[in-house]
Amino acid sequence: MWVEIKAVFLKDLRSEWRQRHAAGSVFLYVLASVFVAYLAFREIADVPTWNALFWIISLFAAFNAAARSFANENGGRRLYLYTLARPEAVVLGKMMYNALLLLIMVFAGFAFFALTLGTVPLRGADPAALVAALALGSLGLGLILTLVSALASHTDNNLGLMAILGLPVILPFLLILMRFSKNALDGLPWSVNGVYALQLGAVSVLSLALSYILFPYLWRE
Amino acid sequence: MARNWWKVLSALLVLTTLVIGLKAPLAPGIAEVSPERLAYGVNSVTVTGYNTRFAEGEEDLQVWLSNGTQLICPYELSVVNDRELRATFSIPEKTEDAFFDLYVNNSKDGTVMLESAFMQKDLTVVASLPENERNPSCVRKPAVTEAAEFNFPNQSILNETIRNLFFHVPAWFTMMLLMGFSLAYSILYLRRSDMAYDAKASDAATVGLVFAAAGLATGSVWARFTWGAWWVSDPRLNGAALGVLVYLAYFVLKSSVNDSEKAAALGAVYNIFAFVMMMLFIMVLPRMTDSLHPGVGGNPAFSQYDLDDNMRMIFYPAVIGWMGIGVWIMQLMNRTSALKRAKILREYA
Predict the structure, then answer these.
(1) E strand or H helix at B256
(2) Interface contact flag, A157 B268, Cβ < 8 Å
(3) A154 lies in which domain range?
(4) Cis bond upstream, residue B35 (ω within 30)
(5) Which of A16, B29, B80, B264 is the most buried (most CB within 10 A)?
(6) CB-CB contact of A46 with A124 (8 Å)
(7) Is B155 exposed, middle or buried (0-12, 13-18, 19+ CB in 10 A)?
């Protein structure tokens, strides 16, 4: 099982590396959105606004990134993939790949966001909690949206349906995430903030388990 | 008939709870007082009642204020009509509490009270009055009512809208039950790949959405009257809105795929995934923030304080009745969709 997951993961990584411009489009999306925000706001000193804007940009970038995860496998190629690996391994491999992609994207996006929109809200931040928020957030977004992307990839209107299906499912997660990251920016202690980290972790694990159970029913279609 | 008894029962329950829930009067209560502040010395106040019979029960009418351990009786009392009375109080300089509770008692209405009816104005509030400044209890033995007619509690702010409990809460309970059915049928579809289960899952979700719309509408009206806005940003309300969005998305997903078996599988997977995620968040999310909604964020549910026996007597049958009606509608939809499927099959055969 692990061998198969690793193989799917590495295959995605390699094919992404071969089409660097495609992966670059997701990064460019983040860069462009942050730049638009910069032109609109110049500088944001207000912590909740800064925090909310960052996660909204990350959310839509995550949608864009996840929507591509099954785009390469259509028709014959999909069938070939499933003869090589179990569907559970395919979805877990894709989830891990998506989580990694988003991890890089969120951290890079965060650096660029802080660079352009000002570091005022970062002054009182708890660095460890902030890193945890970014990591858990990108992980959760990547994991939850992979199954949604698998659903949407079976339809003609991939990106549009992705938003319709994904937003209501991801929104509660996003609310917890925003709360967690805002508390981290405010420098609240772990005793207050730890429970949110726990919830984010629990939701990620749950979405992993659900995808593991449900995906095998999906790939045959 | 033997198999349909529950349909008759549900219809009867809904009908009776509808009639009694809307027709039974509210218990007598105090709607408002004016002025709302009491100062040192003589204060004349007007008390407006709701469903009260001040004039009819005038001979044994008693009015008193309660403040800490002290009871204050008016030295002048006059009844204007059944709904209105005037009382003149002499308020001492020192009180034990910043708020006065108002009690009205007569043999027609029983004891009616308005909590924190008046606020003190320029009085000295002390922890407890010294022994020599306390006045003896001025209240006579309160009159008891002859067996009151069937009525619902009269609570300030809620007032007549308390009846909405019989419609708003059963609507959401029914919606949850139907979404549970939808989930179960989706699981069955994935296990057995029988299109009948897919139709049942989507029928259950359709009827569930109708009840969700009813729940949203009644809730919105209720929020307008008690909280002052048609919609407030509240974890319970936002959770409900998200739940509705999820099922709308479910229908969009199903209709955006032409191959009906593929649509069924996609729909079933999304139904299960979304249901579990929603349930998780509905458990977790309201605990994050305070909520105005009863039963959320440390806010007691209705049953603890506000549901008296008369309310229960209507509320529980209403829940059972509406749930039965919901399941009945779902079954009717199942049967029509089964007929439609059979007709399509016949046409292509």
Answers:
(1) none
(2) no
(3) 2-219
(4) yes
(5) B264
(6) no
(7) middle
Below-50 pLDDT ranges, chain A = none
Q: Which residues does residue B110 pair with via DSSP β-bridges, in sequence order?
A: B106
Nearest CA-CA distance, residue A35 and chain B, Å: 31
Structurally, chain A folds into a number of domains equal to: 1
pLDDT tens across A60-112, in order? 999 988 888 887 777 777 778 777 888 888 889 889 999 999 999 999 999 99
Contact B317, B325 (CB under 8 A): no
Longest dimension (CA), chain A: 53
Separation CA B322–CA B17 (nearest Å): 10
Q: Do the beta carbons of residue B7 and residue B324 sit within 8 Å?
A: yes
Structure tokens at A58: 């990350």
pLDDT of residue B304: 46
Q: Do A221 and B190 touch (CB under 8 A)?
A: no
Which H helix or E strand runs over A78?
helix A76-84
For residue B347, the distance in angstroms to the closest alpha carbon of chain A comes to 26
Q: How far apart are CA B233 and CA B254, in angstroms?
A: 30
Segments in chain B below pLDDT 70 = 1, 145-148, 281-292, 295-307
Separation CA B105–CA B316 (nearest Å) = 32
CA distance B255 to chain A (A): 10
Positions of CATH 2.60.40.10 in chain B: 29-133
Q: What are the tens digits of pLDDT across the range B83-99?
A: 999 999 888 888 888 89
The DSSP secondary-structure symbol of B58 reads G
Other CB atoms within 10 A of residue A80 CB: 10
Task: Please give the CATH superfamily to which domain B29-133 belongs.
Answer: Immunoglobulins (2.60.40.10)
Pairwise CB contact (< 8 Å): A176 & B246: no
